[in-house]
Hints:
With 155 residues, the protein is mainly β. It has one domain: Immunoglobulin-like (Sandwich). Helices cover 0% and strands 52% of the residues. It contains no helices and 10 strands. The strands form 2 sheets. Strands 1, 5, 6, 9 and 10 form a 5-stranded antiparallel β-sheet that branches. The N and C termini lie far apart (55 Å).
Amino acid sequence: MGRKRTVRTYKDTSAKGDRTAIEGNRFFIKVELVSLKCEKKADAIGLTSELYFKVGGKGLFKLDHRTPVNGTIHLDMNEVFKPTDGLTLFCDFVESEKGGTYEIPFKIYDQDVGKDDKLLSTELSVSLGQGTEFVAFQEKGVKVKVGISANRTRY
Length: 155
């Protein structure tokens, strides 16, 4: 019995030498979680801390981006959470003629049965056009390190 010979032909569809022009001044802002450490017990009973983030909340509707969307990050006392590739907490496209800075509200909550406690509340100031900058915060028994970048984009 003979073999059926198949010949595959490929057409080169790459765009060699194509340079897409930068249209306007658009920046891609990204906030990533580098590490999260819980230094205190969150509850008097000794349960683990259930933490979540709310980042953003600017604009017309002031919608916060909650991370994780469903559930929480469970940490014991002195336990460190380090995502392997970075956990994206916030990303956005911003147009600006002259560059400048962009303010992003950043909050960490501890989830409890009755009411969620706000552990950290601050504003992240991002210079448009900057590379990755690492910022660390420590407040109310929580230590957080985030990476912030605002790169120019063609899209």
